Here is the input.
Amino acid sequence: MVITALATIIVKPESADEVKGKLAEFAASYRKDEGTLSWFVNQDPKNPGKFVLVERYENEAALTVHRANPTFKGFFPFLKPHLAGKIEVVPFNEVPVSVPNRDSRL
Here is the structure.
């Protein structure tokens, strides 16, 4: 079953550009992980310090691979001094649909 995680991160306004660049680096690393279907960084156009990450994994094993990525170990220590609030991560089980998305690899 595909697992989708939505992570909301709010950073200090003065940190937005630095965090945006680093999140793009993290995404480039995570997208290479076995079982990662997609890893998107989204920035709120009205609040540049608010980011929503959309992470999609083939299954629980792929999520384990993601957490074992050496980049993952540096993710939270990097973010901590930039945060303006807590990181909220909400996991979902993706509902199968008979017609794939245009960018779907499944």
Summary: The longest helix spans residues 16-30. The chain is about 30% helix and 30% strand.
